[in-house]
Amino acid sequence: MTDLSPENLAAARAPLQTAKSMPAGFYTSDEIFAAEREHVLLKHWFFAGREDELPNPGDYRSLETPGGPALLIRADDGKLGAFANVCRHRGSILLEGTGNCRRIVCPYHAWSYFSDGRLYGCPDMEDAEGFDRVENGLIPIRLETWAGFVFLNYNNDALSLLEHLGDFPQRMATHRLEEMRCTWKLRLESACNWKLLLENAMETYHTGTVHKDSVGAQVSRTLNTQGQWLCLQVISGRSIATLPGTEPGFPAIEDLDDDARKGTYFTVIHPTCQFAVAQDCMWWLNVLPLAADRSVLEVGGCFPETVVSQPEFEAKAAAYYDRWEMVAREDIGILERQQAALGSVLYRPGPLSGRDDLVQQLGLWVLNQLPNL
């Protein structure tokens, strides 16, 4: 952490025209990563998927989270719940992957739970003094939803999800995201710091070089936001969810407002999620930080239910999936090289461009959550 000196941090906090990039330790230090986990990742809302991925009672999905293994499951009454994916007996993982079950049964000692988390069965516990079945149900994780998107939070004292989102719902209102359905997801391992993935997603400075053979150079504008999110818009009269030269397979959503018709919104909902909202669809980049130099990137896509139900949907959607995967892999390739370079003893923070405005804002948002920095 020696390069996280007051002088280097003051330079990172300076006005954009004179600011420097963050010190290397911001991306390489295990101590900083531990502080981020405590003060950022476990304190704020993180994206966990779409409600429509689990439509039926008993549908479940296990997931990795900043707080450990978690479980989303729809109860018999139709309510979606989130729990630590940990048996209350001796801590075994309960469910893996996705599926449907009437009861959650631990594979170790056969303790079992209702889909709403209540304890159902616990063999041979008759001699345990003071054993309380109510107290030994699954441990819930705070869950709130907006427009079909599921968010979790380990901090029961945090603002509500809607307070966290601020004016995000108003900005996206005419896209009617609640009417969309998730149709595709991809998981990618990345040997880089989690913040690099999000910083890269919030500037178009790199697109003409890193993506010269895919999406190419892009023009964008930064939009003002209220709440815990940032936004730029890539200007384009058509959806950029397919590659240049490949016409979008689906029409623009009806009745988009004037701003929405101008291009694609690229947003970061602090701390770990990007929603990219185009004229005809939306996709996300959801980052799971694993270590200072390791992350998992999940890319997912949604389309309006009206087009998902069309017979030719899958054939037309393939061009979108190809674009999303290609660009994500290109980004990871350059970011892994950046992570390696940040390990150089000769690295020094460099000057920022005017096109790095949201890169600076992202870093400062994280930095301001950390005590004593």
Principal-axes shape call: globular
Counting H and I runs of at least 4 residues, what is the number of helices?
11
Quaternary status:
single chain
Largest sheet: 7 strands, antiparallel
Q: Which residue ranges are poorly predicted, with pLDDT under 50 across at least 5 consecutive positions? A: none
Into which percentage range does the β-strand content fall?
25-35%
As for the CATH topology of the largest domain, it is Naphthalene 1,2-dioxygenase Alpha Subunit, Chain A, domain 1
**Average pLDDT level:** 96
Give the full name of the CATH homologous superfamily of the largest domain: Naphthalene 1,2-dioxygenase Alpha Subunit, Chain A, domain 1
Task: Please tell me about this protein's structure.
The chain is α+β, with helices and mostly antiparallel strands and about 375 residues long. The protein has two domains: about 5-45 and about 165-370, Naphthalene 1,2-dioxygenase Alpha Subunit, Chain A, domain 1, CATH 3.90.380.10; about 50-155, 3-layer Sandwich (Rieske Iron-sulfur Protein). Helix content is about 25%, strand content about 25%. It has helices at about 5-15, 25-30, 30-40, 160-165, 170, 195-200, 205-210, 260, 305-310, 315-340, 355-370, and strands spanning about 45-50, 60-65, 70-75, 80-85, 100, 105, 110-115, 120, 140-145, 150-155, 180-190, 220-225, 230-235, 265-270, 275, 280-290, 295-305. Strands 11-17-16-15-14-13-12 form a seven-stranded antiparallel beta sheet. It has a four-stranded antiparallel beta sheet with strand order 4-3-2-5, with no helix packed on it. The termini are close together. The mean pLDDT is about 95.
